[in-house]
Fold this sequence. Notes:
Layout: E1 2-6, E2 17-22, H1 31-39, H2 43-49, E3 60-64, E4 75-80, H3 89-105, E5 110-114, H4 121-135, E6 154-158, H5 164-189, H6 197-211, E7 214-218, H7 220-225, H8 229-235, E8 243-249, E9 262-272, H9 292-307, E10 313-322, E11 333-336, E12 342-345, H10 352-365, E13 370-375, H11 380-385, E14 390-394, H12 397-410, E15 414-416, H13 421-425, E16 434-435, H14 444-453, E17 460-465, E18 471-472, E19 482-483, H15 488-497
Helix pairs in contact: 3-4, 4-5, 5-9, 6-9, 8-10, 9-15, 10-14, 12-15
Bound molecules: ligand BES and zinc ion (2 copies).
The site of one zinc ion has 4 residues, from loops.
Amino acid sequence: MKFTGITGNFTEATADAIAVAVFKGEKPTDATLKELDKMTGGIISSLIKAEEFKGDANETALIRFVPKGTVKASRLLLVGVGTKADYQAHAICKLAGTATRFLRKRSIKSFALIPRSEASASEVAQQSVQGFITSQFELDKYKTKDKEDKQVTGLIICIPDAKPADLKAGIARGQSIGESINFTRDLANEPPNVLTPTEMAKRAQAMAKEVGLKCEVLDEARMTKMGMGSLMSVSHGSSQPAKMIVLRYTPVKSTAKKGELLALVGKGITFDTGGISIKPAEGMDAMKYDMSGGGTVLGTMRAIALLKPTIPVIGIVAAVENMPDGNASRPSDVVTAMNGKTIEILNTDAEGRLVLADAVAYAEKQGATRIVDMATLTGAVIISLGSHNTGIMGNDQALVDEIIACGKDTGEGYWQLPLSAEYSKDIRSDIADIKNIGPRGKAGTIMGAVFIQEFVDKAKWAHLDIAGTAWADSVRPHQAKGPTGVAIRTLLNLVERSQ
Ligand code: BES
Ligand code: ZN
Ligand code: ZN
């Protein structure tokens, strides 16, 4: 893939097509649109006049024209971006993605993008490249025919008067982030017979080597020795051994306060059958994505290693398979977690919280002062928030607010649910300290969070329930259906804001 920036006029670009952002209700009066209108013999004006193109977000119209002068392209794609207020920096990512997917279908190999954004040149370049890369991810890895073999390989970003150094920096950032998002999506797309906990650990190690992160993998013997009885109980029913993946990023020069450490912790259930509390057959196949929180941690750590922020970050993934067999946990078993708390397992399908219990306790033992965990934890969050917002809860309002704000910047929605002592009472067990489920049909997402909270000691902690947002059920103009790589951009923003 080739990315270039142009700081002068778009007519300098050598590409098969040009794609331009058009605002809602806009007429071609500004210099760029005027020139494009002239170039196409007034077709932009007539499309707008006939209301065949209105400029709504993601609307597209393709115009063919006979190139003249220095222009090589013979197609112009108008892409609607809505109102100026709608068109924030993160919308450029969608613009680039929509244009890429549209032009790819028409076998175009390269195009010049005119984003017409007021954001900084580096931001515009970053978002353009990121959208270009993430839009071309497809689910067809295992197809032997009918693969999406068309690829747009060249992107020329036109930002008049930009400094070339800013463009270059933005392009590099966009590439690091876009490829890391796709890295995460590829993991979630893997079938569970391929992506076992062992394979997930191998991929983490290879990635760590590639980008320069420290990677340590704890095996079952180590975890048992450390007292991770909660995590290990989930693994007992599987013939695949569990792995705890630990990635460490240490900046060359840290600007963090002494002793401050951010931990990203992910649920990495490579397949969730439910265990003995087995799930119904219908829809069980979707549970290969139950490692998405862990995948998010790996992709975010990959991008961190490439972007080199100035704070240390530790990434932890509890990679475990939840299966039913003769060694599996029974509903009513009692296990002891690493922090000494006893847990009555009343439903073996509430396994995510069981593995996260030991993973967050381990994070704090490693010195984490802030912990953000990501998990496809509850079906209940899909019922309450659908697929447009990630559920967020935590023990520190400032941290929760910061993450929500980071999401606003990057175009990722979060909605907070309350945690309070009353909810914590709902998971008190008759025979152990706590039980792994709350009252039937009540506040399922919050129950998951208050459970994890029991394993956080002094750290500031936030929990992101990504069950509704980690997988897109249908194709979008800028993105294939399937794994979304949600939360990576938010977390990167959190890391960079903390510098
Ligand atoms: N991985 C599931 C959560 C899930 C369910 C994600 C459906 C996406 C779609 C999780 O391990 C689970 O099974 N949770 C149970 C908890 C319940 C037993 C308290 C759930 O949500 O039903
Ligand atoms: Zn489950
Ligand atoms: Zn699960």
